[in-house]
Design brief:
It is built from 24 helices and five strands. It is mainly alpha-helical. It has three domains: 98 residues, Alpha Horseshoe (Serine Threonine Protein Phosphatase 5, Tetratricopeptide repeat); 75 residues, no CATH class; 273 residues, P-loop containing nucleotide triphosphate hydrolases (Rossmann fold), CATH 3.40.50. The protein starts with 14 loop residues before the first helix and ends with a helix.
Length: 503
């Protein structure tokens, strides 16, 4: 695609081209993506002097996973209009998704140099700094956002996660209470502040107030989803039926033999970020964070409406399907990082894909993070997750029901794949770090390195809600935290007990 250098003059967009652009936009709005894409491409081929067809076509390509092509188009838009906010922000987001945080930061800073009041860019820059462990710089970004736009509630929420509240005289608590009680906020704004206030009151030890805000935030979030445990139960039970030892042993495929992947699985908030930070502190390891790659393949290649989104017997799938899973996954890792000999993937829900992983990538390591069910479920309830993947997370009963299903699934994997899964117990890790870290590294076939013991001092990127915690030395204050909230957790504790009794 031909691109002009920034500032190079060209003929202005003609009235005829403007009309055709509007036709493409209308087709796009009507869901006629093929027609819209053809219209945008025709205008770009004519070297039209407007960033709009570039940006709109880039959006279509990005939505379909073709981000490399989208990046070229956003750069093309910037060649025409170097000040295009849409192109710059999307390009920064693309860099961030690709793991190039330095380039993403530079792009956001370039936006802010010309638009210092553009709070979204400053907030996103703060998120990058937080993931890099530059917590003071991140806090400064969030404070600037809150000063510029006090009702930007997401900044209050994210700031609360990296700020330590000493007592209720902390001025930020007063600011949040004023916003929360004043009214006029939409549901999302109230959710942000409810979770932030819950964090603040937990910090100062007022657990009754903390749970009151936690309950309010979770209730609002739970209303967004029409969640029923039966859908997840049906999926997990189909996995247990399908990926059994006999069925797996009968498969004959040319599996990928790479030992590059290290999968870290378990319930959310069970210590997966901590374990990844420890392993990624090793000189031979790249910490990739939560990758959608395996879970996406394990669903899109095998589940559809025809089979009621449940797995069929393994011998009904062509061997090439399993071979493609391993090959594609390794190719995706190579695009992400082609230097480190080992790469961690800490997507918790890969716990559902353990059987598929060991079929497609038999030499991959599986690390399973285990934590007290009560602390795990409470910690989940304390999170305002950024995606809709955690629909079970916002209700005392459903979070425990999901945990019971997870526990049954992991028992199945241990029976089906004996010796293939290394359990890391959060409580043991925090109490005996060196012993547990040595065992963890051995399970990954890695030599012990002192840097893994001093994981909080390494610069590995952490993109999840645990970005603050894993920058701290190992601590045990989260162990048995559920006891501080015990009076409020009845439905959750009862459901977990029912799960234990059913074993």
């Amino acid at each position: 695609m031909k691109r002009r250098k920034p500032g190079k003059s060209g003929r202005p967009i003609s009235s005829q081209q403007t009309a055709r652009l509007q036709q493409a936009i209308q087709a796009h709005s009507a869901g006629q993506r093929v027609a819209a894409e053809a219209g945008y491409r025709a205008l770009i081929a004519e070297d039209v002097q407007s960033p709009e067809p570039y940006c709109r076509l880039a959006a279509i390509l990005a939505q379909s996973g073709r981000r490399d092509e989208a990046d070229v188009l956003w750069k093309g838009a910037l060649a025409i209009d170097p000040d295009s906010l849409e192109a710059q922000m999307n390009l920064a987001d693309s860099y961030q998704l690709a793991g190039d945080l330095d380039l993403a930061s530079k792009t956001y800073r370039r936006v802010l140099a010309r638009h210092e009041d553009f709070v979204i860019a400053r907030y996103m820059l703060g998120n990058i700094l937080k993931s890099q462990g530059r917590l003071e710089d991140a806090a400064d970004c969030y404070q600037q956002v809150m000063a510029q736009q006090p009702a930007y509630t997401q900044a209050h929420f994210t700031y609360s996660g990296i700020h330590r509240y000493r007592d209720d005289s902390d001025p930020h608590i007063g600011v949040m209470l004023d916003l929360y009680e004043r009214g006029g906020l939409n549901a999302e704004g109230r959710i942000h502040l409810a979770f932030a206030l819950a964090k603040a009151y937990e910090d100062i030890g007022d657990y009754a107030k903390s749970f009151g805000y936690l309950k309010a935030g979770n209730a609002l979030r739970f209303q967004e989803f029409n969640y029923d445990i039966e859908s997840d139960r049906a999926l997990i039970q189909s996995i247990i039926r399908t990926f059994n030892a006999e069925a797996i042993s009968r498969l004959e495929i040319n599996a990928e033999q790479s030992d590059r992947p290290i999968f870290i699985v378990g319930m959310p908030r069970s210590g997966t970020s901590l374990v990844e930070k420890i392993i990624a502190s090793h000189s031979e390891v790249y910490g990739a964070g939560e990758l959608e790659y395996m879970f996406a393949q394990g669903t899109s290649r095998f589940l559809n409406a025809a089979n009621n989104f449940e797995y069929e017997p393994l011998d009904r799938y062509p061997p090439a399907t399993f071979e493609a899973v391993g090959k594609t996954y390794l190719e995706q890792l190579a695009r992400l990082n082609n230097e480190a000999s080992r790469v961690t993937d800490k997507m918790p829900f890969n716990m559902m894909m353990v059987g598929l992983i060991k079929i497609a990538l038999p030499n991959a390591r599986i690390i399973h993070c285990v934590r007290d069910a009560r602390d795990t479920c409470l910690s989940i309830l304390k999170q305002n997750f950024t995606t809709g993947n955690y629909r079970f997370a916002y209700d005392l009963k459903t979070v425990a029901q999901f945990h019971n299903q997870y526990r049954e699934l992991m028992r199945h994997w241990h029976r089906t794949l004996p010796g293939e899964i290394h359990d890391v117990r959060y409580e043991s890790l925090t109490q005996n770090p060196e012993q547990e870290i040595r065992a963890l590294l051995a399970a990954c076939d890695l030599e012990f390195e002192d840097a893994c013991l001093a994981f909080n001092k390494t610069d590995a990127v952490v993109k999840t809600a645990s970005a603050f915690q894993v920058r701290q030395p190992m601590y045990t204050k989260s162990v048995a935290l559920w006891q501080k909230y015990e009076a409020f957790l009845g439905p959750m504790l009862d459901e977990l007990q029912r799960g234990r009794e059913s074993i």
